[in-house]
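[step 3/7] fold_predict: job queued, chain A
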Amino acid sequence: MSLRPMLHPLFQEISSGISEFTFADIYLFRHTHTYSLTTLADGTIAILGVDKGTSFFMLPFGLPDVEALALLFADRGMMKCVSESQKELLEQLGYTIMEDRDNFDYLYLRHDLAELAGRQFHKKRNLVKAFVSTHNYTARMLTQADVEKGLIVLHAWLGENLPGADYEAAKEALEHMEELELCGGLYFVEDKPVAYVLGEQLGGGVSYAIHFEKAAPDYKGLYQFINQSFASVLPESYNIINREQDLGIAGLRKAKLSYQPTGFVKKYRAFPNS
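[step 4/7] structure written:
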């Protein structure tokens, strides 16, 4: 956390829209991916990590000189979260590029999620109506004072999900939301906390990333309701909502596609030519 004053402004200058490239995301998943930072000889900051036993590096703030880049590839073997602009430069340098479809970020127009207009959202509207007509609900901004209520939701969510997943990151996000400048919504049924959303502004200031969306089971239409509700209260300056990747999980991909994304933040992996 001590590095945030230095790194957060740098992340906010990034215009690629990649959801991993925020201080909060790197910090919260530092144990999951064994993240560490290194400064190269030319001053470029690189993020080192491990993905399912495979070492990698990321260069969110730009590519280093050719020699430093070659040393990184020799040491780590793979570059993740390669942006479109980096892809072109790496191809020119002779590196092999592979599309990383499982990690594409899904982009949605804020007003589409808020209004759910048109035939393509008919089923979503029905699910929202089912929740609204069945339950006495309230909603408010999620603040640091609501940590315990958020943890109640997180524990209820964990009851039907595998231990691990992003539980530890989600828990820490609640506990440090103020320090990390995360914002979100908290939702109640009969004064019982049942769901929350937590995210942040991405670099460039026109898109908002949803990092965590957790809900208790057994409330039909709850996820659809909080999706629409939070989009409805986001400032209009956020034209785009980034709902992150599907990780190659078939059910998650189907769900994300069902909300009719307006596009994707494409990501690539780069390797040295063998």
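[step 5/7] annotate
DSSP finds eleven helices and 13 strands in the chain.
The radius of gyration is 20 Å.
exit 0
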